[in-house]
Design brief:
Layout: E1 3-9, H1 24-40, H2 45-50, E2 53-54, E3 57-64, E4 73-83, E5 87-96, E6 99-109, E7 111-114, E8 117-120, H3 125-132
Antiparallel strand pairs: 1-4, 2-7, 3-6, 4-5, 5-6, 7-8
Amino acid sequence: MLEYVLEFRVRFGETDAAGIVFYPNYYKWMDEGTHALMEKAGFPTRRLLNERAGFPLVEALCRFRRPLSFGDRIRLVSRVEEVRNKSMRVSHAFYREGELVAEGYEVRAWIRGIGGQIASEPIPDEIRRALLGEGGTIRASDE
C-alpha cells in the first residue's frame, strides 16, 4: 500500500512548559502525513478542494510511548492501511533514532459537494487504485 516518509526536527514552539511536545502536534503531523500521501498518489488536497471533494477526518487516535523534546529528529511513516467503500484508514508511526515513540491512525471518509450539500460516496476507482498500490486490501463495507 501507499507509504510516505517525512523527516523533521521538533521545533521549540511545538513543546509545552515541561519541555515535551504538546500532544496536538502529533495530530497535526499525522494530518501532514496524510496530505503528503494524497499528493504522492496524484491527488493533492488543492486539486480535491477545487473539485469540491476530499477526505475529511472522522476518527483519530495517537498512543504516546516516549516523550519528544525540542530538537529531536523525527521520522514519521504514514501508510494507507485499508481502503473501504467510502473511507480509508491511514496509520502513522513516529520514530526517534529508530525507536518507536508514538503511533496512531486516522479514518477519513470520501465526500463530494453536490448542489451545496456535502455527501459521502464511494471512493472513485482511480483514487482507490492509487491508494492501494500493490497488494492492497479492499473492504466492501464501512463500519
